[in-house]
Amino acid sequence: MLHRPNYQLLDRHRCFTVFAKNHAKLNFQIVLFIATVIAAILVFAFIGILLLPILGIIDLIFVLIGTVKASNGEIYTYPLTPDII
Asked: Fewer CB within 10 Å: C terminus or N terminus of the chain?
């Protein structure tokens, strides 16, 4: 899933909550990208055919939940996402 560049990550000192929200979002997208690459490789073993739609649904659900939480002013931490950056 491609998303537009988030320029708010470049300005850390402007608002801590904006930085924390974008930090969590970027970590989740990096983990999801790595999982998608692994699933794409596993397509040759016919396992990835099942994993790719599941990853798409997971991305849609968690991004929608994160969007609702962010609109309420809460910091949403995505599940099973380590701090990469």
From this structure: C
How does pLDDT run across 3-35, given as a tens digit for each residue? 555 555 555 556 666 677 788 889 999 999 999
**Distance (Å, whole) CA 73 – CA 7:** 19
Percent helix / strand / coil, the chain, rounded to 5: 70, 0, 30
User: Residue 79: is it exposed, middle or buried by C-beta count within 10 angstroms (0-12/13-18/19+)?
Assistant: exposed
Q: How many CB atoms lie within 10 A of CB 66?
A: 19
Strand residue runs (E) in the chain: none
Whether the CB-CB separation of 9 and 19 falls below 8 Å is answered with yes
The one-letter code for the residue type at 34 is I
User: Do 82 and 31 meet the contact criterion of CB atoms below 8 Å apart?
Assistant: yes
State pTM to two decimals. Answer: 0.76
